[in-house]
Specification:
Layout: E1 5-10, E2 19-25, H1 32-42, E3 47-52, E4 58-63, E5 68-69, H2 73-85, E6 95-99, E7 102-106
Parallel strand pairs: 2-3, 4-6
Antiparallel strand pairs: 1-2, 3-4, 4-5, 6-7
Length: 112
């Protein structure tokens, strides 16, 4: 199974700086146990898992190397960055996420 996986340094334009997060783009399939194993392997503070939904939003979940968490700001911004960079969300459009903490929306402001 091929699953796109990105490492994004949030809050910086300098490589190897900022706050790193892994972002994994999913389709149907992998369950929470698989996500936890990936997060453990990535060994970053958080790994974000995105699954597209029918209404143009994305289901977003975050895992540390040891457990799932209800909210993570830098991994949410990293997820939005991947969606904009990969053209999955238009650069001028907001990225919308459904999460355990409710609906989150990220808007791009110029380069950010």
């Amino acid at each position: 199974m091929f699953v796109p996986l990105y490492q994004v340094d949030a809050f910086t334009t300098t490589p190897f700086a900022g706050n790193p997060a892994a972002v994994c783009l999913l389709s149907d399939g992998p369950d929470a146990d698989w996500m936890q194993r990936v997060a453990s392997e990535m060994n970053l503070s958080e790994t974000a898992f995105l699954r597209p939904q029918d209404d143009g939003t994305y289901r977003l979940r975050w895992f540390t190397p040891t457990h799932e968490v209800d909210l993570c700001g830098h991994a949410t911004l990293a997820s939005a960055h991947v969606l904009w960079t990969e053209g999955m969300v238009a650069a001028g459009a907001p990225a919308r996420f459904d999460t355990a903490s409710g609906r989150l929306t990220a808007r791009r402001n110029d380069e950010w």
